[in-house]
Amino acid sequence: MDSRTAGHDERQRRRFLGRAGAVLLAGAALLAGCERPGEPPRPHVVHKVQGRVFGAPVEVSIWGLPEADAKRHGDEVLAEWQRLHDKFHAWKPSALTALNEAIARGEAYQADQEMVDILRAATRLAEDSGHTFNPAIGRLIRLWGFQTSQIEARGPAPEEIRKLVDARPRMSDLVFDGTRISSRNPVVMLDLGGYAKGYALDRAARILRGHRVPAALINVGGNILALGQPGERPWRVGIQDPRGEGLMAGVDLRDNEAIGTSGDYQRYFMKDGKRHGHIIDPHTGQTTDTVAAVTVIVRGGSDVGTRSDGHTKPLFVVGPAQWQAMAERLGLKEVLLIDTKRTVHMTPAMAERLSR
């Protein structure tokens, strides 16, 4: 990045801070259906269907349909999310754990086309990111104690971490023979916790488009995808403080845009005064301690949700010093990063999107 771009980025950052105060921004929080002051009432209301899947609160907000139709379509989405949760669970018995067990035995696993497609797409992102995104490090994630619903403080022995890092599990170790999957490296253990929620957004969007839903906002644990718009204005979401409460800024989401956030403030533990979040650097085997949250906005295509989820992880891992280079490498234009020193970093395009 040249000095002119850096200067522009700094001016945008200062401009935002001057407008919003010394804020910390992260995690998308829903403001769906809220009317702005002076806005005329909308002819339709937003009907919401809520649940809990993937260990997180989920919500489908549908505009422009009778309540009964909205509930039926929302329930269909929740059922699809439950199917995906059961299929790709990383530690409870599932198709994914069966694949991991086959890999550990050195055997091939008979999968289906959906699993093959997800793993091939994840492999492309892993390679594009220089393996800073790496769902093959499930053994490291388990070693740190994050493959559980009840996270406890834990400190793996350095030699255990080094052993797994030196084994170099990579998505590129996977071998696809039609729908049969094997691995060249028996240390590969797949964990799609940083990817499946985004795929779930895309599946929900496909279902709702199939039913010709006029407008919807789909929320999986704070990762959000917009379809259409509720009346004359786009959907609006809020961005939340990773170290506090309340909404610090708003963003309008247009049709087929998705916003995704990764943070260290939901799945983490404290040990010896240090916060250990669930996102692990595959190159060191250590938890990442320089970033509080990363938010990206992406648009276009049938995988917009998947990209909004997966693309935050490489930025989180490389941290404040290298996030801009990684964003350029991945073609991301709208990025917001909050480091653990409470410094706000963002691209000029993201600064233009944010408002109070």
In words, what does this structure look like?
With 356 residues, the protein is α+β, with helices and mostly antiparallel strands. The protein folds into two domains: 3-87 and 197-353, ApbE-like domains (T-fold), CATH 3.10.520; 95-183, Orthogonal Bundle (T-fold), CATH 1.10.3980.10. The chain has eleven helices and 16 strands. The protein has helices at 3-20, 67-87, 95-105, 113-128, 138-143, 158-166, 196-210, 304-310, 312-318, 323-330, 348-353, and strands at 26-30, 46-53, 56-63, 109-110, 174-177, 180-183, 215-220, 223-227, 235-240, 247-253, 257-263, 268-271, 274-277, 291-299, 334-339, 344-346. An eight-stranded antiparallel beta sheet has the order 2-3-7-8-11-14-15-16. The chain has a three-stranded antiparallel beta sheet with strand order 1-9-10, with no helix packed on it. The chain has a three-stranded antiparallel beta sheet with strand order 4-6-5. The radius of gyration is 20 Å and the shape is globular.
Distance between the termini: 29 Å
Strand order of the largest sheet: 2-3-7-8-11-14-15-16
Shape: globular
The residue-averaged pLDDT reads 87
DSSP helix count?
11
Please state the CA-atom Rg, rounded to the nearest Å. 20 Å
